[in-house]
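Supplementary Note 2. Why include the ligand at all?

Several targets in our set were suspected to adopt different conformations when bound, so apo predictions alone were not considered sufficient. For every target with a known small-molecule partner we therefore ran a joint prediction. The input for zinc ion is given below.
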Amino acid sequence: MGNLRCVYMFVAFKRYRNLHIILERAQRPIPNAEYNLVCIFKAYLHPFDAMKSIFTLPFLLGFALVSCTNTTSETTESEKEEKEVELTADTNSPVLMILGTIQDAGSPQIGCKKDCCKDLFTNPDPDRMVVSLGVSDGKGNNYLFEATPDLPRQFELLQKNGKKREKNTPDGIFLTHAHIGHYTGLMYLGKEAMDADQVPVYAMPRMSAFLSENGPWNLLVDRNNIELKGINEGEVVQLDEITVAPILVPHRDEYSETVGYRIEGPNKSALFIPDIDKWTKWDQDIINEVAKVDYAFLDATFFSGEEINNRDISQIPHPFVIESLEAFKHLTASEKSKIHFIHFNHTNPIIDVNSDKAKQVLKAGFKIAQVNDCFNL
Ligand SMILES: [Zn+2]
Ligand SMILES: [Zn+2]
Ligand SMILES: [Zn+2]
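The joint prediction is reproduced in token form.
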């Protein structure tokens, strides 16, 4: 695992150039074996970057040495499993990337005086972006899942890690529903911002109607900043080698229906359900749905009912992580390892992968999604 640790820190160093963050990353578990090679090849190993690295090498080597010697003896069962994953780094193949992991309201959340947020107002963590996935098809097309308030940085990250193209807007944005974290990033495409030209936005019928019939979003439609592409349950959107299928899920549907997505590449497939009320309220069996894919990015808003003491948690239902651990406890190790928890409320202790609760989740064989994780599709 030592080599992977070095590579992971190399990425942290290249991305952040900030000692505080690099030191923090040095303590984290390696998020995903594929992350290391796919992301490195895609983003960091082109000649110009390599040249720049020469100047930073002495510093990096010092860290890598300390880090690697610390970790080689700590190989856990799940790390052994990851080692066995076949690592490929074909820059021309489709890849899915985690661009954000946090619940709609972000982290830190406005007014939060608790330990979860109090230091983040003055010392923000650049990885605390609202939930989003990116897909690069290996041919220069880049797609976003969700239009979050962090969309500008997320699109930049996706382009940097995917096969870059000079285009300055996504080739498509897939929306799940009309809650603030999932669509308000569309504002960056409007007249007050870049005044984009016909960015394809894939949306279900109620979601499309919501955008076309309500200001300020209808301005985006009327001015052709976005081009609404209607999608429907049971229909598949074909994007060259990649297919995307919306799946209806039960959620608080004030303004739109809510969907998750099944995303299929030529080799691997993924399920993305960032918001759902409870697994038991769904007419589908989540265990069957996980069985159909290679990766599942699932709603983990709250760890348990205990972390919210100022709100009636029954009014904001989500599958608690502890409920999911119970529901998935009889799955095989390989099925469990598909599940990556995502969409964390600011109060959820597993945002900090060094917390006891996060260790409990990882030890049980599940994964915790991290920004910049990459997965071959
Ligand atoms: Zn949400
Ligand atoms: Zn907080
Ligand atoms: Zn929601």
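Confidence is low (pLDDT under 50) at residues 42-50, 63-89. The chain is about 35% helix and 15% strand. Comparable summaries for the other entries are listed in the accompanying table.
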